[in-house]
Amino acid sequence: MGRLVLAEGETFSPPGVKDFILPPIFGDVTKPMVLVVLSVVIVSAFFLITSRNLKVIPSKWQFAAESVYDFGRNSIAREQIGSKDFKPFVPLILTLFTFVLVNNLFGIIPVLQFPTMSRIGFPLALAVLVVYPVYHYVGFKRHGFVGYLKHATMPPGAPGPIYLLVAPIEFLQKFILNPVTLAIRVFAAMFAGHLILLVFTLGGEYLLLHAPVALKPVSLVAWAFAIAMTFLEAFIQILQAYIFALLSANFIGMALAEEH
After folding, report:
1. To 10 degrees, what angle do helices 218-256 and 90-105 make?
2. Which residues pair with 4 in a beta bridge?
3. Going along 85-229, which residue ranges are E strands?
4. SS3 of residue 1 by DSSP
5. How many CB atoms are located within 10 Å of the residue 144 CB?
6. What's the average model confidence in pLDDT over 11-39?
7. Quick one: pLDDT band at residue 1, thresholds 50, 70, 90?
8. Domain boundaries in the chain?
9. How large is the greatest C-alpha to C-alpha distance in the chain, in angstroms?
10. 97-150 pLDDT, tens per residue?
């Protein structure tokens, strides 16, 4: 990656992949690992505390928890899985949504300032070790081994010879690409968004401290963009958590559906 060289000879190295590889805090424990554990504590504490003393007329915190639960239950799980089958999957979908959301929002929280999902291992673990086994398990359980393979790879109504082309493509998508693309989607969004914030923030700092006097006002422009991008990033972080949970529920719904 190129460097910006100013008149005084100072150089600016733009942020890159190296800024996402953080040194251990102690032993082999890194900041992203700590943030993942912290997110579990935050999500668990939020629901435990807000549901400890439920009232008919909810407090603002109870209302917030009920709103999040209702969103995960009705707007994601029920819509994607169907009113007949969705109830057993509400805890999973709600957990995926809130877990990914909190880890994404870490990227704009002062001091923390690192979106955990910008490390590919975390969303990949969720997709491959949690979502992937669940939706294939329920598919095999509902349709049987041969029935589910047929259900997943052979859409009804296609001419017989077409299946020679369609079946391998469907198998590749359902059994290999779905979990990978699910993980890459949130990873790429968090990685790119955090990188953009680093560029504007560190670039503004560099211009203020090391640029000639005539260029120092440009640092204010860079920081203004950083602030604007922070609000945009917050929206994307929420959106990506929603999409991750939505697609997870959609995969489960498709596996359970009677028709392809």
Report:
1. 170
2. 12
3. none
4. coil
5. 12
6. 88
7. very low
8. 4-256
9. 73
10. 999 999 999 999 998 999 999 999 999 999 999 999 999 999 999 999 999 999
State the Cα angle at 151 between 248 and 178, rounded to 5°. Answer: 30
Q: Would you call 67 exposed, middle or buried from its count of C-beta atoms within 10 A (0-12, 13-18, 19+)?
A: exposed
Both tokens assigned to 220? 């204010």
CA gap 55, 57 in Å, rounded: 5
Q: Is 114 left (phi over 0), alpha (psi -120 to 50) or beta?
A: beta
Which amino acid is present at 39?
S
Cα distance between residue 145 and residue 259, in whole Å: 16
- ∠ CA 222-227-231, nearest 5°, is 140
CA 55, 60, 66, 67 dihedral sign is positive
The answer to whether residues 132 and 34 touch, using CB atoms and an 8 Å cutoff, is no
Q: 126: which 2 tokens?
A: 């969720």
Identify which of 257, 241, 260, 255 has the alpha carbon closest to the alpha carbon of residue 93. Answer: 241
Residue 7: per-residue pLDDT = 47
The torsion angle over the Cα atoms of residues 197, 198, 204 and 206, rounded to 10 degrees, is: 180
| 3 state DSSP class of 3 | coil
Is pLDDT of 3 > 60? no
Position 160 scores a pLDDT of 72
- For the chain, what percent of residues have pLDDT higher than 70? 95
Mean pLDDT on 29-41: 95
Task: Tell me the two tokens of residue 252.
Answer: 């489960």
